[in-house]
Write a structure and sequence with these properties.
CATH architecture: 3-Layer(aba) Sandwich
Number of helices: 8
Number of domains: 1
CATH superfamily: NAD(P)-binding Rossmann-like Domain
Number of strands: 7
Distance between the termini: 38 Å
Largest sheet: 7 strands, parallel
CATH topology: Rossmann fold
Radius of gyration: 17 Å
Helix content: 40-55%
Strand order of the largest sheet: 3-2-1-4-5-6-7
């Protein structure tokens, strides 16, 4: 089996569970050395254990993606440990409370924007700097279907994910001639621990019914798309926002 990320070095944020964990494991299965970042150290360690049990190479780092210096540190650790940085998947994010815009508290707004938008900018800022040094790379920003359509009662989430799509396009345009690609992925509703912890079965079924496929997606379905975009197999794809939502936004 040809590994599409052989000898690449990758950072994945929010890699302690759900989509982030699936991406980190898939990267490792495809031959990459993976820096597994999460604010929850125990979850990050667990992801590393799963990778190592499968014969992969990974390293856990506790990091808060909403802080600029912690993003800088992540890049420094990857270079210190593996000598370079080829791939980054900026996945860490939160939903925030469910309220209409006129009832959203400024501090609730600030918390979502701090992680979902500022955190992605900080990550890209230091990843790009390093990727220029090693002559290229691929950045994948995890947006959402709500980078394109509304999520009523989640104004901060919708705004932050739209912004991530815009930032992704800007980076792609600025760095295209430097052999650095940047794409965004928009997952629809995915079966993750976060989703099942917050929604009962009836609500999950109702959400599944909103997409023509009539089921929730799996973290692996997102991870496979991300791995493709991270690899040279997608070498002509940059500045794209690719939605994987079972048809949710098609109707």
């Amino acid at each position: 089996m040809m590994s599409i990320l052989k000898d690449k070095v990758a950072i994945v944020s929010g890699a302690g569970s759900g989509i982030g964990r699936a991406i980190a494991i898939t990267y490792a299965n495809e031959g990459a050395k993976v820096i597994v970042a999460d604010i929850n150290e125990a979850h990050a360690d667990e992801t590393v254990k799963l990778i190592q049990e499968n014969g992969g190479d990974a390293f856990a780092v506790k990091a808060d993606s909403s802080i600029a210096t912690e993003n800088k540190k992540l890049v420094e650790i990857s270079v210190e440990k593996y000598g370079k940085l080829d791939i980054a998947c900026n996945n860490a994010g939160i939903g925030g409370p469910a309220k209409p815009t006129g009832e959203y508290e400024p501090e609730e707004w600030d918390k979502v924007i701090a992680l979902n938008l500022n955190g992605v900018f900080y990550a890209c800022r230091y990843q790009l700097e390093q990727m220029e040094k090693n002559g290229g790379g691929s950045i994948i920003n995890i947006a959402s279907v709500h980078g394109q359509v509304a999520a009523p009662n989640s104004p901060a989430y919708t705004a932050s994910k739209h912004a991530v799509v815009g930032l992704t396009k800007n980076i792609a345009a600025e760095y295209a001639t430097k052999n650095i690609r940047c794409n965004a992925v928009g997952p629809g509703y995915i079966e993750t621990p976060l989703l099942s912890a917050n929604l009962d079965q009836k609500t999950q079924d109702a959400i599944a019914a909103k997409s023509p496929i009539n089921r929730l997606g799996t973290p692996q379905e997102i991870a496979d798309l991300v791995a493709f975009l991270s690899s040279d197999k997608s070498s002509f794809t940059t500045g794209s926002y690719i939605i994987a939502d079972g048809g949710y936004t098609a109707i």
